[in-house]
TrEMBL record:
UniProt-listed PANTHER family: AMINOPEPTIDASE N, PROTEASE M1 ZINC METALLOPROTEASE
Protein name listed in UniProt: Aminopeptidase N
Organism name: Streptomyces xiangluensis
Broadest EC class assigned to this enzyme: hydrolase
CDD domains assigned: M1_APN_like
Signal sequence interval, chain numbering: 1-23
Start and end residues of each Peptidase M1 membrane alanine aminopeptidase domain: 311-455
Length: 497
């Protein structure tokens, strides 16, 4: 609503008159949320607070049917808006009234409500849809993984389009209810807590709930035949883990690693503060074609390939560290990926220290010395790597080097205060690398812009003096490989997509 103030006159006192927006004042929401790395991802004009997804999935045919209900609020006078989605839509309703819709671009669903929506309006959007997710692609790829006994939605920076309509960007977090009906004998795994199950006429329905804000790429769905284990961490967080029944030789190593989830999460609280959610776990479907893992909120996805060489608790540490760095505090834009990956990698270095298999300093020295000055590794800037290098190994290892340099510069007391205070400062929100710099300067009381520039933004190997100033070895010979390095390096493909 637009308002104007009328001055007192002879016949009236001061009045505040509401002037309704004219049709010309309403504009379409932007087809992207404004991320320069991915201009078409997310949408403008509204903010989602909750997704209710009621689904039915047939593993044999990969057919998915769904009704998605989105609760949102408009952020502008809105004539139409976009959703990110790929499946076939049969009906859209906005606040109960049928809306017109059409597809555009690679993954856009354009929705025009029957009447325009003023800024600040609560909106309920209902989308009825169906399709075969594995038959859909955008930009030449798919984020839906077909398995011998079902399918999985898990990828970064996008996965939602293949199974539910959304505002697909970390800036728009929401809570979730995911209800999935599958044939008896199959299970449906998703985020959060399993609220209930029920069976009827050969189908079993699983009702999952995520009660804390969650980015769309962190929502996951897996249907298949799993061995499911349940328990609680020592701190009392319920744990649900699931392992595909046909993992073959990788089964034992996967289970021996992921069953330590509660232990690892409790250990991480010493560094990052209280665990931020009410559920824990992990799942390993038989996705033979993928090699990565993903920090899907409360229940990370792990490829069987992560355990091809035996147990790997280090990858569990990585994905659980993301529950604080990436999930609790999410990127404001995808250029800020360092505040996800640099910290999750550094958690692996801390775990190595804890296990007595090489200190964080020894690993930092090894990484620094292992890459000569002319290695392309140093041309990737972790603070702004570009979309083509968003998951480059330099974002992980050079990103962790930056944290060791920071630790050496400000000392352990300030450094670990920052690691624990940062998730609390931006809990359930979004932040940038610049925000982290300001926070680190505030806590440490030291100017840090030059150090951050050297380790995060210079497209070259820090020189000997810069490395020495940060207490990173500048020796010409490569230090002895830390004992933990092999397991850490096995997770180098953790987010290769």
């Amino acid at each position: 609503m637009h308002r104007r103030l009328i001055a007192p006159g002879a016949l009236a006192a001061s009045l505040l008159l509401a002037i309704p927006a004219s049709a010309a004042d309403y504009e379409p929401g932007a087809p992207g949320i404004g991320d320069p790395y991915y201009p078409a991802y997310g949408n403008g004009g509204y903010d989602v607070s909750h997704y209710d997804l009621r689904l039915k999935y047939q593993p044999e045919t990969d057919k998915l049917e769904g009704t998605a209900t989105l609760l949102a609020t408009t952020t502008q006078d809105l004539s139409r808006f976009n959703l990110d989605f790929l499946l076939d839509v049969s009906e859209v309703r906005v606040n109960g009234a049928k809306a017109s819709f059409k597809t555009s671009g690679e993954h856009e669903l354009e929705v025009t409500p029957k009447t325009p929506l003023p800024k600040g309006t609560p909106v309920t959007v209902v989308v009825r849809y169906s399709g075969v997710p594995s038959s859909k692609s955008a930009y030449g790829f798919t984020s839906w993984h077909r398995t011998p006994d079902g399918g999985v939605g898990a990828n970064e920076p996008e996965a939602a389009w293949w199974w539910f309509p959304s505002n697909d960007h970390p800036l728009d977090k929401a809570t979730y209810d995911v209800s999935v009906s599958v044939p008896d004998g199959s299970q449906a795994i998703s985020n959060g807590t399993l609220q209930s199950t029920s069976s009827r006429a050969g189908w079993t329905r699983y009702n999952w709930r995520s009660n804390k804000p969650q980015a769309t790429y962190l929502a996951t769905l897996a249907v298949g035949k799993f061995d499911v284990t349940t328990g609680k961490s020592e701190s009392g967080i319920p744990i649900v883990n699931a392992y595909s029944k046909d993992l073959g030789d990788n089964y034992g190593a996967a289970r021996a690693s992921i069953e330590r989830t509660g232990e690892v999460a409790d250990w991480l609280t010493e560094y990052f503060g209280p665990y931020p959610f009410n559920a824990l776990g992990g799942y390993v479907p038989n996705t033979a074609e993928t090699g990565y893992a993903l920090e899907t909120q409360t229940r990370p996805f792990y490829s069987p390939r992560q355990f091809a060489n035996g147990t790997n608790v280090s990858v569990v540490v990585h994905e659980l560290a993301h529950q604080w760095y990436g999930n609790l505090v999410s990127v404001a834009g995808w250029k800020d990926i360092w505040i996800n990956e640099g910290f999750a990698r550094y958690a692996q270095w801390l775990w190595s220290e804890y296990e007595g298999e090489g200190t964080a300093q020894e690993i930092a020295d090894y990484v620094y010395a292992s890459h000569p000055a002319d290695d392309a590794f140093w041309t990737v800037k972790p603070g702004d790597p570009g979309p083509e290098n968003q998951f480059h190994i330099a974002v992980y290892d050079r990103g962790a080097l930056a944290l060791q340099a920071l630790r050496n510069e400000i000392g352990d007391e300030a450094f670990f205060a920052i690691l624990k205070g940062w998730p609390k400062q931006y809990a359930h929100g979004n932040a940038t690398v610049g925000d982290f710099l300001k926070y680190a300067e505030k806590v440490s009381g030291q100017p840090l812009a030059s150090l951050f520039d050297t380790w995060l933004y210079q497209a070259s190997k820090p020189t000997g003096p810069a490395a020495r100033d940060a207490s990173i070895s500048a020796r010409s010979t490569v230090p002895v490989q830390p004992k933990s390095w092999k397991k850490i390096a096995e997770t180098n493909s953790v987010h290769e997509h």
